[in-house]
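Q: Predict the bound structure with beta-D-galactopyranose.
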Amino acid sequence: MRKLNLFLGSVLVLFMFGISSCGNKAKEMVTTENFGSFDGKEVSLFTLTNAKGDVVKLTNYGAAIVEVNVPDRNGDKANITFGYETLDGYLAGDAYFGKVVGQYANRIAKGKFTLDEVEYTLALNNFPNSLHGGPAGWHSRVWTAEVLKGTDFPAVKFTYNKPDMEEGYPGNVVAEVVYNWTDDNELIMDYKVTTDRRSVINITNHAYFNLHGSGNGDILDHEVLIRASAFTPVDPTLIPTGELRPVEGTPFDFRTPHLIGERIGEEYDQLILGRGYDHNFVLDNVEEVDAEVYDPSTGRVLQVITDQPGVQLYTGNFLDGTQTGRGGKVYQYRSGLCLETQHFPDSPNQASFPSVILTPEEPFLSSTTYKFGVR
Ligand code: GAL
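A: Predicted complex:
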């Protein structure tokens, strides 16, 4: 009997130890610190450390990526994404650094769309259009945060409950993004969006990258590959004209790698209208990797893998040195590039583009990965 008790006791101790060590494992991979408060809600800074010792920092203000610290080919680590030192920086900043953008990422022409014969009107924050979900879109909200436990990698989940008609979009919408930081330096972003009423959805992450290290020079010497055979040309207000233009023979052909600076100054109508690259590429979606950025000087590589039909290449054409980021770094003209995976801009008004209708019956599920490596 005593033996049996001892045996059961040991099993219980082992079981409890197993539970607590498994629970602690995830906890140690993610640390949480106070980052201030906004709108009566607590804002935190989360530090995710993978088995390699490489670090990603996130905040629940705008569900944003704050830092990505990864090595170059000599093993020297640097933060390669844009972020602010403090919450006040985020509150004052206007360029969506690392943020999750919704309910409709990119532009909607004249801030109007019709769904089921009802016209909806949005704020015009990028005259004459509505941009990135409006002035108080999801990028400017405090999301609920949860450090996931029992996961193989550090992972944090952010949730935003958007009330019906906030920023003009119908539906009580629940948006979730889970950031997973794997031991292979993949930042996997899993999105889930549900609604109680028919609506529209386009969600992206707006991270800026400079593979030299953020704040260190421009991105004109970055080599870019985008597996897209067409892009969506825009009008002077950056709204797609509806044309799907083949990239063949244009400065938009990145199906083989090209330096950003190689053709950006060409007298090509779309480069002039966009002040550089600020366009949606129609992804071929045939290979695993949809886009790749390589910095020959440091050897750093960023790969983008997505299930979305488009990606916006934005070459920081509106950056002007007025934003100061982490470590006192000043973000100058074209010092960062974004690859915003998405549905096409203005899709609610363009019947020929893939549908962006969100219904109560079917959650919107999507995944995009930024994978960091060296060559
Ligand atoms: C991009 C957009 C640009 C600019 C930028 C924010 O997604 O395509 O035109 O608005 O966001 O400054």
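A: The chain has a mean pLDDT of 93.
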